[in-house]
Design goal:
single chain; 11 helices; 46% helix; NAD(P)-bd_dom_sf; KR_dom
């Protein structure tokens, strides 16, 4: 395939780009011609510590391959950190055209055992971070009459996973955030879309493997669901190639790209005299029962091997 220069002349910000999906997105954005601000504070999977090395290493890799990049270690979980990140892009490269909200941490625990800190920490990075960074870039996007947001959601929110109430709530919140940004900013020529990535990284690797079948499945996922498979869609959505794509939710699973549904009415019942709790149980629920959503988890819905 001929390399694309779809991001030539553009400036992109990628949060959480020191490793995993964010690293591959940053590298492929640079390969497509973008100048990239690589944001990563170098924390552990659960959000502890800090290390300037990961962001600097990705910048060095981009530069070694002829690209242009700048490292940033601000925390996007605060409004000031997100503002400094966007200002660095503008100060360094003169503009900003694309924001990829990728940074994330995990604090898995059954919801009734989850502490305030475990809840707050995950929402701060994923949901607040996406809001703060998007908000900081918005004035620049509006002034130039163009811009693209690419947000990372998850099937943990779209479908469901156990012991991830904080993560799932944040990721579903990001879908609502993206959709509203798309509506609010469309007149300014700004787009906002989501990707639910399936990729082997620190988050997926942290899920316990207890059976031989799970081990075999994990090995297949590690081989086929690489972060590099997600990056092309992020580059596409950030570029002018996706000029008419706005407010959508996609998923990437190996070599598959899926357009995900968004909540819309699936069945309606009406009764002229209104409803009582009893008539709802007698009439409405039986009429709608066949359309109820099964209580499934991500693995139940995406039950075929990655390809």
């Amino acid at each position: 395939m001929t390399p694309s220069l779809s991001m030539a002349g553009k400036v992109a910000i990628v949060t959480g780009a020191g490793g995993g999906i964010g690293r591959d997105i940053a590298i492929q954005l640079a390969q497509a011609g973008a100048r990239v601000v690589v944001n990563d504070i170098g924390v552990s999977l659960s959000g502890e510590g800090s290390d300037t090395g990961p962001a600097a290493a990705v910048v060095a890799e981009i530069r070694a391959n002829g690209g242009d990049a700048s490292a940033n270690t601000d925390s996007i979980s605060s409004r000031d950190g997100a503002r400094r990140l966007v200002e660095q892009a503008v100060d360094t490269f003169g503009r900003v055209d694309c924001v990829v909200n990728n940074a994330g941490i995990l604090r898995d625990r059954f919801f009734h055992k989850m502490s305030d800190e475990e809840w707050d920490a995950v929402l701060k990075v994923h949901l607040y971070g996406s809001f703060y960074t998007s908000s900081a870039a918005a004035p620049f996007f509006k002034e130039q009459g163009s811009g693209a947001y690419v947000h990372m959601t998850s099937t943990s929110g779209l479908v469901g996973n156990r012991a991830q109430a904080n993560y799932a709530a944040a990721k579903m919140g990001i879908v609502g955030l993206s959709r509203t940004i798309a509506i609010d900013m469309q007149r300014a020529g700004v787009r906002s879309n989501c990707i639910a990535p399936f990729a082997w990284g620190r988050m997926v690797a942290s899920i316990p493997v207890t059976t031989e079948a799970q081990k075999v499945a994990a090995e297949r996922k590690q081989k086929l669901m690489t972060p590099g498979k997600v990056a092309p869609l992020a580059v596409y959505l950030g570029s002018d190639l996706a000029g008419d794509i706005n407010g959508q939710v996609f998923a990437v699973r190996g070599n598959e790209i899926m357009l995900m549904s968004q909540p819309r009415p699936v069945k309606s019942v009406h009764q002229a005299e209104g409803w009582t709790p009893e008539s709802i149980g007698e009439i409405a629920m039986p009429a709608m029962r066949g359309a109820l959503t099964p209580l499934e988890e991500t693995a139940d819905v995406f039950n075929w091997p990655p390809i």
